[in-house]
Amino acid sequence: MLDLKDFEYEELIEYLISIGEKRFRAEQIFSWLHKGVESYDEMTNLSKLAREKLKERTYVSTLSIREKYISEIDGTVKYLFELPDGNCIESVVMRYHHGITICISSQIGCRMGCRFCASTIGGLYRNLTSGEILNQVIFAQKDIGERISNIVIMGIGEPLDNYDNVLKFLHNVNHEKGLNIGYRHITLSTCGVVPAIYRLADEKLPITLTISLHAPNDEIRDSVMPVNHRYKIDELLEACKYYIDKTNRRISFEYSLIHGVNDSIDNAEELAGLVSDLHGHINLIPVNKVEERDFEKGSNEDIRFFQEKLVSLGVNATVRRELGADISASCGQLRKKVL
Ligand code: SAH
Question: How many whole angstroms separate alpha carbon 183 and alpha carbon 150?
Answer without folding.
Answer: 9
